[in-house]
Write a structure and sequence with these properties.
The protein is built from 13 helices and five strands. It folds into three domains: 119 residues, no CATH class; 143 residues, Rossmann fold (3-Layer(aba) Sandwich), CATH 3.40.50; 119 residues. With 400 residues, the chain is mainly alpha-helical. It has a five-stranded parallel β-sheet, with helices on both faces.
Length: 400
């Protein structure tokens, strides 16, 4: 694939009369780096699938052997790509491609180490529990996670806000999406702060058809206040001792302490949490902004993954108009940022539809896709949306 891309580049540069340009090696190196990046992602995805099927049933020797084979295979692939470099300026090209792929190999080795550390030697039959919660409810989430891990030794509870659950250097959204693919129980912490948060509903929606056990637990909130579809399931209240015990039974065990004491601890933790502000317009704007960011950041940013554009559902056109209307009530700086974000999002949507409206057969002609404009629009939308959130409320990260 890299060789084909290079050949097209040569033809284009001949047509432009620019065959001898000094930029040629750098352009070729980027092609090879992008192809290797796609290869790296495929290797990690395959590894995750294998580890999930083995359910942690790997001893340390097997882990070392598998890791060694994968690292060797990845290094061999990089060498083969370097060896296939040919054409004009071969020495310069080879050096540029080797330097570009060296970073890709290092990144892949780092990703492999992370995956094996995280998954490979996890004890058998210890499904991870995903605890979905609003960031502002972190003290409550941490308390519940500790109790689950105490009752079920060796069982990990993933709490995105807990230090260490997402390691330094890992991409936050990608890590959450990866953990959402697990088929273990999802415990949804529903409070006055989280019940209308888009992020909580995103996690519930992502798990709805993948997990057998989705357990919603209410704290400081009546069950009747939880909207469908989650409200249509059996709900537990952690304000009641009997239902605390029921939570642990549904997870496959028995609570060995005084449930009434845990209820008191939960109540005490809740008292340290500040209730979400009642500013409805602000909450509505931040929720809409957050949903737009979630969709925009789901799009691929390199040519090798371009087909993934088809799988992302675009926002309704009314959402970008609503963004401008809501932002206008927060003053001129907010209105200006919303208008610029709107412009970038329209560009992203227009380019995405070019791909989505073209059938898979014969396929989209990627040579005519405007990648520089695509990347610029994605970067511009992200920059403007984050700046808009800061203008509306500097503490917005605790509100989504």
């Amino acid at each position: 694939m890299a060789r084909e891309e290079k050949a097209r580049l040569v033809v284009q540069m001949h047509a432009d009369g620019a065959t001898d340009t000094a930029l040629f090696p750098a352009a070729v190196a980027k092609i090879y780096a992008d192809v290797y990046s796609g290869f790296r992602k495929a290797v990690i995805d395959d590894l995750r699938s294998v580890l999930a099927q083995r359910s942690g049933n790997l001893d340390e020797a097997a882990v070392v052997a598998m890791k060694g084979r994968l690292e060797s295979s990845c290094a061999d692939t990089a060498r083969q790509m370097i060896d296939e470099v040919g054409g004009p300026k071969v020495p310069d090209l080879t050096l540029a491609v080797r330097e570009a792929l060296a970073q890709g190999v290092m990144d892949l080795k780092r990703d492999l180490a992370i995956e094996f550390e995280r998954e490979a030697i996890r004890p058998l039959s210890t499904q991870e529990v995903f605890l979905s919660h609003a960031a502002v409810d972190e003290p409550l989430a941490a308390l519940i996670a500790r109790e689950i891990e105490r009752i079920f030794p060796g069982r990990h509870v993933f709490v995105a806000s807990r230090p260490g659950d997402i390691k330094v250097g890992q991409k936050w959204l990608e890590e959450i999406e990866r953990h959402l693919q697990d088929r273990g129980p999802l415990v949804v912490l529903v409070t006055p702060n989280s019940v209308m948060r888009p992020w909580l509903w995103f996690e519930v929606g992502a798990s709805w058809f993948m997990r057998d056990d989705i357990i919603a637990v209410c704290v400081g909130l009546e069950k009747a206040a939880v909207p469908a579809p989650l409200g249509a399931r059996q709900l537990l209240s952690l304000d009641r001792a009997a239902e605390v015990r029921q939570l642990f039974r549904q997870l496959g065990g028995e609570y060995d302490g005084e449930a009434a004491e845990l209820v008191k601890s939960i109540s005490a933790a809740r008292s340290t949490v500040t209730n979400a502000p009642g500013d409805a317009p602000k909450h509505e704007l931040l929720s809409l902004l957050h949903q737009l960011r979630l969709i925009a950041t789901s799009f691929p940013r390199n040519r090798s993954n371009g087909e993934q554009i088809r799988s992302v559902t675009l926002w309704p056109e009314a959402d970008t108009a609503s963004l401008r209307a809501l932002a206008a009530t927060f003053g001129m700086p907010a209105a200006t940022l919303a208008a610029e974000a709107h412009r970038h999002l329209i560009t992203v949507a227009d380019l995405a539809r070019q791909v989505q409206n073209t059938g898979r057969q014969p396929g989209f002609e990627w040579e005519r896709f405007d990648w520089p404009r695509w990347i610029s629009a994605l970067d511009g939308a992200e920059r403007c949306l984050l700046s808009l959130a800061d203008v509306v409320d500097p503490k917005w990260r605790s509100l989504v």
